[in-house]
Amino acid sequence: MQHSILNYIGNTPLVKLSKVTEGLEAEVWAKLEYFNPSGSLKDRIALRMIEDAEKAGILKPGMTIVEASTGNTATSLAFVGAVKGYKVVLYVPEGVTSEERIRICKSYGAEVVSVDIKDESVKEQHGVHGAIVELIPREVCLKKEQEDPNVWWARQFSNPSNALAHEETTGREIIQQTGGKLDVFVASIGTAGTLVGVARALDAHDPSIRVVAVEPKNSRTIKDGKPKVPIIEGLSGGLLLEVTEKKLADEIVAVSDEDAIAMTHRLAEEEGLFCGVSSGANVHVALQVAKKLGKGQRVVTILPDSRNRYMYVERYTT
Ligand SMILES: Cc1ncc(COP(=O)(O)O)c(C=O)c1O
């Protein structure tokens, strides 16, 4: 029994995969982030970014929260903002975010503003939070924050509270749930908050645990160990740079839409896990990694969100 729905963020289940792993000696475990109240791992960072800003005195009652997001962060900020009584305005690139996702945010009472992306080729970069398609809405957030003292921009791509949320909750939960016994951690990169935070927690626990990053083949943010997106002070880079500069990932694997979608379907049909397409990508890679491991070794991965966000458009996005 809890006084607030916000107390049900985190502490998600960790489940052993049993069918898609047939023939493998090593174990693969999946952390079910769609158990978070608004349906994704971003509830953790929305809560942490908002509460850290409140503690720092830069977010006060009556202020408006803004963010540029094409996906789950938009929904999570709308959800946490609603519970805490903030107005939330989300700037999304026109024609990129699905109508379904926009309706979810509006259902939590948020305002959704479409930002015109003039360059059609930029729209193709739909896949990733760090991609060029989000830079124009981020410029709008920056301008709103500069012009109006009542506006606070969450800045998930560079806000330290993003990685901290995962370090202190997701990472610690994985260590606790596995009794500290795991060999490899696999996660998709969007802002890279999950990977950076969990990698820090695991490294402090046991530096021999390997970390594997996963990216959509169609819209990579990291290539040949360097960020592929332009790094613009205040608008891009952020946590992604921590991955490349500190070489946080031992390996970075690109996964196609086809492979990610095929595994997403198998997870629902064979394991009963109704997770989104990046979950399929993560498990696809986790199985490749597990193939090279022996009996008793353990791979842990993340299922970031729910399949019900991909009923009309199935695509590997982060
Ligand atoms: C569906 C999905 N998978 C994976 C990720 C990756 O998370 P992160 O931003 O922490 O790298 C995100 C968010 O970016 C996401 O929305």
* Quaternary structure classification: single chain
Report helical residue fraction.
25-40%
Shape: globular
CATH class of the largest domain: Alpha Beta
Bound molecules: pyridoxal-5'-phosphate
Strand runs, count: 12
The count of domains is: 2
List the helices and strands and how they pair.
Elements: E1 14-16, E2 27-32, H1 42-56, E3 64-68, H2 72-84, E4 87-93, H3 99-107, E5 111-115, H4 120-123, H5 135-147, E6 151-153, H6 160-177, E7 184-188, H7 193-205, E8 210-216, E9 222-223, E10 226-227, H8 238-245, E11 251-255, H9 257-271, H10 277-291, E12 298-303
Parallel strand pairs: 2-12, 3-4, 3-6, 4-5, 7-8, 7-12, 8-11
Antiparallel strand pairs: 1-2, 9-10
Helix pairs in contact: 1-2, 1-6, 2-3, 6-7, 9-10
The structure holds pyridoxal-5'-phosphate (PLP).
Pyridoxal-5'-phosphate (PLP) binds next to helix 7.
